[in-house]
Design goal:
The structure holds two protein chains of two kinds. Chain A is mostly helical. Chain A contains ten helices and eight strands. In chain A, the strands form three sheets. In chain A, strands 4-3-8 form a three-stranded antiparallel sheet, with no helix packed on it. In chain A, helix 2 packs across helix 9 and helix 6 runs antiparallel to helix 10. Chain B is elongated, with a radius of gyration of 15 Å. The termini of chain B are close together. The chains are: A mainly alpha, B mainly alpha.
């Protein structure tokens, strides 16, 4: 019975996008037959950060209804502070006025402009208007705060259970305890060594759960989730820079000696080796940054591309196949979300472990 | 566009070969010595992440090139 229900539900869900695509075809027939669905626009819109949180939309052309949450925009322009909501940008001209300054919203970036919305373009069609400093609370920021709230609520409630006399773990505690112990024993202590590991346990555990929960929120396809937070290069850059600082601030004497002086190596080789070692200091966090960002972004792109197939091919029978494929990809992405958090933590622990080792090792 | 695609393909061949050989080696080692399985797994994942990094650099360059 359950299985039959499951099959019926699956086939209904997989035919949903078809209804949408047939509807748009009927509409398109009246107005414009040549307009084609462009998946790159959808993908770019999804994977980039935004000043507005788009919830859902339906309809086409004039009847189009968008439900979206305008987010606060904070700008500093020529020493003046501007604070207003995204909804102040005009729907058609994309221009907003605040305290006598005019701003233009163009493809997710805010530019300075004047009352008429004058734009200057270079020969490639890119805008070269000046930009104000943008400190807006964008979609990714709200997504991060959501993850912080979830993490605090989860781990404070777990931590409270360890107060007082030890009891049998129960509830969500029994799910997280083995994971925490695994990260602590099999990654951190293993890579750094027993004596020095405990200093880094809080940082590395935070890193793991922060990346994991944000990867998972990114996989939720509807409103509070779906932002490409860990697939944003600035986010992963900050994480990688923190790892870089932790590694090098805690670097032992012998670590710096081996990096900068390369003892016991012929001086001819030193000329090549020392620059390589110094470049190596920076390529490690750089690789961390690119790996996380590219993995998560690639996952999002693949899932959207699979769903986009229905709209590209405009065919009823593509729908079940593409839905099934995107379900499979989503399951794979759940695994990748965990794996990337694990890899980031593991490599951070590895780099820290290499840096803190003392001479006799 | 086409040269980017060609380069991507070449890099994926390289990374695929690398991870394939790595997996083969790790599997054989795990089958021979199941008692060090967890250590082998960790080492394999580190190496896999490093190889995969190269393929991901290619993806990023392809994205930048459009």
């Amino acid at each position: 019975m359950k299985r039959v229900l499951g099959i019926i539900l699956f086939s209904l869900i997989s035919l949903l996008p078809v209804a949408a695509s047939e509807h748009s075809e009927a509409k398109g027939g009246e107005e414009n037959n040549t307009e084609k669905f462009d998946p790159t626009v959808v993908i770019e819109h999804h994977i980039s950060n935004a000043h507005v949180w788009h919830v859902v939309s339906w309809g086409e052309g004039e009847d189009k209804v968008d439900i979206e949450i305008p987010l606060p925009i904070i700008l500093i322009n020529e020493g003046k502070f501007h604070f207003f909501l995204y909804s102040r940008f005009d729907h058609h001209t994309q221009i907003a006025e605040d305290n006598g300054s005019y701003f233009l919203y163009h493809h997710g970036t805010i530019y300075n402009t004047d009352a008429k919305g004058t734009i200057t373009e270079d020969e490639n069609g890119h805008l070269i208007n000046t930009k104000p400093w943008d400190f807006s609370l964008t979609k990714n920021v709200w997504s991060m705060w959501l993850s912080i709230v979830i993490l605090l609520w989860l781990f404070i409630s777990i931590a409270k259970k360890y107060n007082g006399s030890p009891k049998r773990p129960h509830g969500v505690q029994s799910f997280f305890e083995p994971i925490i112990l695994f990260i602590k024993d099999d990654i951190i202590v293993d890579q750094i060594g027993k004596e020095k590991a405990y200093k880094f346990v809080p940082y590395l555990l935070t890193l793991f759960f922060f990346i994991w929960i944000n990867n998972m929120i990114g996989l939720v396809p509807f409103f509070p989730g779906g932002s490409n937070f860990t697939g944003n290069i600035s986010v992963t850059m900050v994480l990688a820079i923190i790892t870089f600082l932790v590694t090098n601030i805690n670097g032992s004497k012998s670590y710096w000696k081996h990096t900068l002086l390369a003892p016991g190596i012929p001086s001819v080789v030193k000329i090549i080796l020392i620059p390589v070692e110094i470049i190596g200091l920076f390529t490690k966090p750089f690789a961390l940054m690119i790996r996380l960002m590219a993995n998560i972004t690639a996952g999002h792109i693949i899932i959207i591309s699979l769903v986009s197939l229905i709209f590209i091919l405009q065919n009823v029978w593509v729908s079940p196949a593409s839905i099934a494929l995107s379900v499979v990809m989503s399951i794979l992405e759940l695994f990748v979300a965990l794996l990337q958090a694990y890899i980031f933590t593991l490599l951070s622990a590895l780099f820290i472990g290499m840096a803190v080792q003392s001479e006799e090792h | 566009m086409t040269t980017t695609a060609l380069g991507l393909g070449l890099i994926v061949i390289g990374a695929g070969l690398g991870i394939g050989l790595l997996g083969k080696g790790a599997m054989e080692a795990m089958a021979r010595q199941p008692e060090v399985l967890s250590k082998l797994q960790t080492a394999m994942l580190i190496a896999a992440a490093l190889i995969e990094g190269v393929a991901l650099f290619a993806i990023v360059i392809a994205m930048i090139n459009g």
